[in-house]
Design brief:
The structure is a single chain. This protein has 347 residues and is an all-alpha fold. The chain has a single domain, classed as ABC transporter involved in vitamin B12 uptake, BtuC (Orthogonal Bundle), CATH 1.10.3470. It has 15 helices and no strands. The protein has helices at residues 19-42, 50-57, 64-97, 109-124, 129-151, 160-182, 189-192, 194-197, 205-224, 226-232, 236-241, 246-268, 274-286, 290-315, 323-340. The longest helix is centred in the N-terminal third of the chain and has 34 residues, at 64-97. The chain is globular and about 65 Å long.
């Protein structure tokens, strides 16, 4: 039997990093996340002393500063879970499509979820938190399928650039439709602003409680697909030769990514580029093994979004810049860099 006829374990051909290096980066990233979460509690329209932060974490709300910190706790937690969901979903989308440009924002998935929620609120009386989430997931799934279908047309199938162009065009069209729904409804325009820009302001424990089961399910589905995504990275034919049910694996992983995108958009709006920037950066740190890349992308997404939220509160104090604007400012140059790379055809 020739070498080409012998099945190769999917992990054997992956770019590896020493385990100690991966563990070291894991500890560094966890420490940075803890630091930015602490900063998220300390900084805002009213800066508070570190002693007030520790007191509020212990449940104290006796002073105005401690009460301010207590109100920031759910915001920090929402930024963490939404950032983790977006980072993980981006890594999974890139693995499923073998497309280095895949990202929930670039492919229009988040904007499709936003349009579904806005339409439901404006025309169908959508009001419950669970209704937002189910509607957003439906909109995300339909948009993902439509973008993939459009990007698959023509010669060469769904190439990275075709998918990115299709996603950008469809995302722009969906954003226009969101504006068309919002503009005539001045009575609820403030409510709709979240689904136009994206942000984590006004977070509450009720929001967290409603979205965590969905995000938890999405995390489990995506992380369970890590080894299968390593096989898909070798190509569909070789993955099938290794015993993977390619269509089932791709559909299952995509479902997990859509659940994460839809649920996070339902509570925070269409935050873009987190799912693009974070997986690419994490590959530089831990390699391309999805068993490491996926959890690192979740941790990196949580760190990036929380840091962007803190920065947005500092640069415009006492007002704030929505986190969706800052991630767009950070991610747009990164996207241009990836497009200009010579080896952008596939991962």
């Amino acid at each position: 039997m020739s070498v080409t006829d012998t099945p190769v374990a999917p992990d054997a051909v992956l770019v590896r990093r020493p385990a100690r290096v991966r563990v070291l980066w894991l500890l560094v990233l966890a420490a940075v996340l803890i630091a930015v979460m602490t900063a998220s509690l300390a900084f805002g329209s009213r800066a508070v002393a570190w002693s007030d932060v520790w007191a509020a974490l212990g449940g104290a709300e006796a002073t105005l500063e401690e009460a301010a910190v207590a109100k920031r706790i759910p915001r920090a937690l929402l930024a963490v879970v939404v950032g983790a969901a977006l980072g993980l979903s981006g890594a999974v989308m890139q693995g499923v499509t073998r497309n280095p440009l895949a990202d929930p924002g670039i492919l229009g998935v988040n904007m499709g979820a936003s349009l579904a929620v806005v339409t439901g609120i404006a025309h169908f009386g959508l009001a419950s938190a669970s209704g937002y989430i189910w509607t957003a997931m439906l909109g995300a799934a339909l948009t993902a399928a439509f973008v993939y279908s459009v990007g698959s047309l023509g010669r060469g199938g769904p190439t990275p650039l075709k998918l990115a162009l299709a996603g950008a065009a469809i995302s722009a069209a969906l954003a226009s439709l969101v504006s068309a729904v919002v503009l005539p409804r001045n009575d609820i325009s403030d409510t709709f602003r979240l689904w136009q820009i994206g942000g984590v302001g006004g977070a509450s424990y009720d929001q967290l409680g409603s979205v965590l089961p969905f995000l938890g399910a999405g995390f489990v589905i995506c992380l369970a697909a890590a080894r299968a995504l390593n096989s898909l990275a070798l190509g569909d034919d070789l993955a099938a030769g290794l015993g993977e049910r390619v269509a089932l694996v791709r559909a299952g992983a995509a479902l997990g990514a859509v659940v994460l995108c839809g649920a996070s958009t339902a509570v925070a709006g269409p935050i873009v580029f987190v799912g693009l920037v974070v997986p690419h950066t994490c590959r530089l740190l831990v390699g391309v093994d999805h068993r490491w890349l996926l959890p690192f992308s979740a941790l990196g997404g949580a760190t990036l979004l929380t840091a962007a939220d803190v920065l947005g509160r500092i640069v415009a104090r006492p007002a704030e810049v929505d986190v969706g604007i800052l991630t767009a400012i950070i991610g747009a140059p990164f996207f241009i860099h990836i497009v200009r790379r010579q080896k952008v055809r596939s991962l």
